[in-house]
Design brief:
It contains seven helices and six strands; from the N terminus they run βαβαβαααβααββ. The chain is of the alpha/beta class. Helix 3 crosses helix 4, helix 5 packs across helix 6 and helix 6 crosses helix 7.
């Protein structure tokens, strides 16, 4: 039986010109997680991360605290959905005014309304990547990671982790959306979600572990 450790990236740079860059807090979260894995285990045998900069930088921060970390491979299927594209399409479809410069609380409210519309819209909703396609991509990424020698560590994004957790709890893809929405709002930066893989397939063991983080480092965006 193998184990996959799904890690959400460290805090990105909300409100900056390039969101896809770890903040100083994000770098520290990654280093703390690496130190925790070095002490508590398991240290990964193989590592894969999405192609986004925040994925790579989170692994770099973690690797700095591990002894002899493996070389990471990139799998683009672990990329997050295009949240700006989802917000824009929601605004186009509904006439809503979506202000990306609002504070975190206001942005979170806009984000949840927009992603709920996306997950319910179906393949003909006009989104560049329909929600079902996104979930299918996440499932493909999980299947590929399960073939790697383990323990396998994956650095990805909260939406992907939430989609896989929802799929493993509610296998019917048509019913995943509402569960995904609940999971997606609570995935902490550098949290660990464990999936065990055996003869009967993948099963969710834990979700959103973050005991390695002191309260001052717990963030969700």
């Amino acid at each position: 039986m193998g184990v996959l450790l799904l890690v959400r990236h460290g805090q990105a740079s909300f409100g900056s010109d390039d969101y896809d860059v770890l903040s100083e807090t994000g770098w520290e979260q990654g280093r703390v997680l690496g130190q925790w894995l070095a002490k508590e285990g398991p240290e990964p045998v193989s590592v894969v991360h999405g192609g986004m900069r925040r994925h790579r930088e989170t692994w770099e921060a973690m690797a700095s605290a591990l002894s002899g970390p493996p070389t990471a491979e990139v799998d683009e299927d672990w990329a997050e959905f295009d949240h700006l594209g989802v917000l824009a399409r929601y605004a186009e479809a509904t006439g809503a005014v979506v202000d990306h410069t609002t504070d975190r609380r206001a942005f979170q409210e806009q984000f949840e309304i927009s992603t709920a519309h996306w997950s319910a819209a179906g393949p003909d909703g006009g989104y560049p990547e329909p929600y079902d396609a996104f979930v299918g991509r996440a499932r493909t990424a999980l299947s590929a990671a399960a073939e790697r020698p383990g323990p396998t560590l994956v650095v990805t994004s909260g939406g992907v982790i939430a989609a896989l957790a929802a799929l493993l709890v509610v296998p019917d893809i048509s019913a995943v959306g509402p569960v995904w929405a609940r999971f997606n709002t609570v995935v902490a930066n550098t949290s660990v979600t464990r999936v065990i893989v055996g003869a009967t397939g993948a099963r969710l063991l834990t979700f959103n572990e973050h005991p390695h983080l002191p309260r001052s480092l717990v963030t969700y965006r």
